[in-house]
Amino acid sequence: MDLSSSNLETLALIGKCKDNTKGKNDAKKHKYPVAVFFIVVNEFCERFSYYGMKTVLTLYLRDVLLFDENDSTVWYHLFSMLCYFTPVFGAILADTYLGKFKTILYLSCLYACGNVLLSVASIPNTLPQKEFSLLGLFIIALGTGGIKPCVSAFGGDQFIRPQQDKQLEQFFSVFYVAINAGSLISTFVTPILREDVQCFGSNSCFPLAFGVPALLMIIAVVVFFGGRGCYKMRETAGNVMVEVVKCMAHAVVRKIEHREEKHEHWLDFAGDKFDRQLIQDIKQVLRVLLLYVPIPVFWALFDQQGSRWTFQATRMDGTLGVTTIKPDQLQIVNPLLILALVPVFESVIYPCFKKCGLLTPLQRIGTGGLLAGFAFVVSGIVELYLEPTYPSIPDAGMTQLNFINTLPCPLNISYINNNQVKWIEINATSYSFERNLNNQSIDITAQLISSPACQQMNLTIPTWTGRIKGASTKAFSVIVTGHNSKLDLMRMENEEPLDKSSTGQPRVGFVFRQDDQVPNQGNITLKAGERIVSFTRKLIASSSLFIQTDVREIDAGTYDVFMALRNGDVVMENLIGNITVVQGGSYTIVAQQSHFNPQLMNLNNNLLLPIEVTPPSSVHMLWLVPQYFVMTVAEVMFSVTGLQFSFTQAPASMQSVMQATWLLTIAFGNLIVIIVAEAKGIPRQSMEFFLFAGLMALDMLLFFYLAANYTYVKVEEKTKVNEKVGDEGKETKVPDHSLSPIKLGTENSKTPTGTENKGFSDDTPM
User: Taking the model in full, what pTM does it have?
Assistant: First the structure.
């Protein structure tokens, strides 16, 4: 980015704004306000910061702060809930104390500080990581939540209504496109910074993934402050919320004390003390708030794109040609589709429906809710196909033994579990998983099955009897081998990697036979082109015959396997074979040096024995695109319309409060997810998805019922007679914007006296 040219352009626009404020003629007053440029750019940068940070947040909570998947979901939605709860306070600050400009500016500075703190806290060995990371998230939530209800409303303040209602509609569409453009770019970039960059001794780089959004937030503050000479700023309307509470309380008291009085509405009892316009405004607020009751369920579904749907993606195959889609990167589908679908809906779909008299604003919101429910039906179906690829984790008090036969002949194994004898046969160089065994010492007998290959082994004792013990909910490899002319079974010390990785990458660990003839055998190295992965060996205390390496997450693909051999001062890399690992799988690779082992001289084709501990992700990640598409269509109909609805239905003195209330429904939606996640009463993820889909359907039935009885408002431009001004004693007519009730989709019983509000009439291009 060329900052110098950007600054020159900004300065030119500031000068133009100042010239326009002089207002040479009426025609210029109604030109598209240039100040909107600063607001849109500010929103783009802020949304880049917010979504870029939030895209990688779930994996940061799990992989760095070491919360489990369920707790990560809870913390993620707690953060989201706070982000959408704090708008209430931001709205009060803007409407009653600081005004929108100062509220946005001050809280944006706080917001940027939170971003910087989170980025620094993610650097290992700097600050107490968990505590300062959560503190940074708290500060970010205060900042982003505080400015949420103000930015779009501040942009709306730059227009003259109703003369510029058409431009106002265009602004909201451009504003929403800016949101999703910032989201689109950051959702693509930050997962790359997280995974493909290594820093501070880690295989990932969360400090950079958080640092770039912090830089964009700083830019957002600078751009917004740079447009200060352009903005139209309303004076604060006083402590609106206090007046509202006082008015409502007074009305309730008078209704109880003066039951003989008759009024159309219970708020009319406050008419003896409070202004009629305030009472009308409160009535309109209450009418809209009634519609907000079913709204949180939509957000409970929508916000799971960053939690449950991201975790769903980690269980899928993201391989796409020579590249791999990262699980958190798939969230890019939503903003990408938003950018494509908003113009289509605005210019094609909505006009077509309007010609048929369909899809009024509230109907769009309800239809969007139903589509969100359908998106979760799709995600539930996808989850059903994923279930066969889930890792099989032993129940509490149970264990799993993976018998791995490295010999060229089959064998029988018998063992006693829960007072029952079980027999299994394992083919040559094969394996068998025995799951849900009692977590006690198990009596085991192994017997080789005679074959020509076995005779070459020269095992004088072809049987083995002993006891092997596992551990609760864990799995262990039991290696079947020959040693000192005897059949031998050895349980490895380190547990097998049953769980799929949180990133979706394959998990790989090695077990290899210690060669007594070659001193100081080194580590194992994988090579695939320019990619090199090294595995550190761990000497097993109970046996010097086999060695285990650490378990690592690597990129999917095919690798050549090298074992480093040290003989004196000479280190040689010995190619012992190749392996192919698939995304989502967990593998244990058994390696033997047959050319140094007299018992395995003729087994050169079996140097590597790959064990698929957990099946790979066989369902491709692109199968998530349909549910993202349906959810995005739902968002276009629900959220874009809702953004306009919250602004145009709000009384002038309480617009930010109304938008904050709309955002508050998002907070309660995240609370619903937290409650469900903490309840832990749903055993399968697919069942949870279907539960949310059913809940959404019932919720939208309630919404349609409430919407059918809603009376919405439109702006009228009328005149009022002011008191005498100056010494001439003349009356001056000035425009006054008020709200008048209009029944949705119907004509008024009386002819309107003002200009129709195109924002919510039946021919609105929304």
Answer: 0.75
